[in-house]
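User:
Can I borrow your eye for a moment on a structure tokenisation matter? Would you put together a sequence-and-structure record for a protein of your own picking? Please set it down just below, with no commentary around it:
AI:
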Amino acid sequence: MGSSFHIYCIFKKECNRLIYQDEVSLNYSSLNSTAVIMSVVNLTRTTTFTCKCQNEPEPCGTDIVPGYQPAVPHNLTCIQEGEFGSVNCTWKTGWETHVKTTSHLWVQGALPVSYESVAVHDGTRSALFAVSGTQSNFSVWIHTSNSLGSANSTVHNFTLNEIVKPLSPNISKVECSSRQCQLYPVNSQSTELVEIRYEDKQGSWNTVSYNNTNLTSWTVRSLNPYNQYMFEVRWKLGLTRGLWSEWTQIEGVTDEEVEITVG
């Protein structure tokens, strides 16, 4: 990309020679009775060069596609999507090559498991691979190549316990009284940590956490009566296991407080 070079044309006979870059006539220098040379400076796009004799319809030419060899892929990270889901790996590719470039995600489980290669579509920066119930340790890397060269990322080693990310909580309903709301998840996916943050209509945020919970619902207390709240919930499989899920949003409205009359 942006290279400067010389192009030579060799003619089989003497004639009135014409040289074109795309459809624009070029100046050239004669080396001898059959060969000419022309200089190309800072080529930055796909270009067709042709040589022909005047009054003869058939030219001789070539297409030149400028580009770069691949940069070393970097920022390779992997996440297991759900406790029993596939592993999704993403990375960054560096500069644009401007030519067709292919990539493969290479995966190796614990020995004696053989290497696995996952083809990646041109321009894509992510790939999935499935895991079996017996595998928990993996090494992965990206190999990328084109007609100008190739490059490998550094090897990324991980265990599934480190990268498992539970699916977002599915909250089926919210039930509120005047001072508290109860949130009901569809299932808890064996999660041990739950974090709930909530915002009232004045924009004030608060957070509550639950540890080692097998509860079928979570209660958020000390709320204000007759108020609308936005709740956000996420969870994690264990204190040292995996990643936090994405947040799930759901709204709840507390009841108007009932005045109690004594007497």
